[in-house]
């Protein structure tokens, strides 16, 4: 009968394999993103290759933060705010965000790391939730950090927008 617990040797093997997959994915994504498209039309930083992923994840992460009838506008507002925030990042931080977005956008890395094999546009909400939950609870710190970064960037972009304030009861900054 197989042992249900992972021993130290197996844990090291899993960690090394996960690290190798992420490093290889990062290398591949940097290689492909070096020739990738520039900023999408109307954006300073966000690229066309990143928009399908963001347009699918933002509504799930904003569930309960915006009424469903205004969700399309909330997604667009969040994208604009996120783009503005990314535009003001240091080059080093922007490079790290691009690596995260490349890993999530490149089919070669997206499938194995997220479980979204067919593409963001056709993934079901349940598949997206499973991906987010898997990364949130991953044994690999890098995936947990990726989840936290994605969540924080999107939520900060949404709550920086005046469109979000009424729903959460914030009257806005004081008039000076």
UniProtKB/TrEMBL annotation:
Organism superkingdom: Bacteria
PROSITE patterns: TAT (PS51318)
Protein name as annotated: Twin-arginine translocation pathway signal protein
Native species: Stutzerimonas decontaminans
Lineage: Bacteria, Pseudomonadati, Pseudomonadota, Gammaproteobacteria, Pseudomonadales
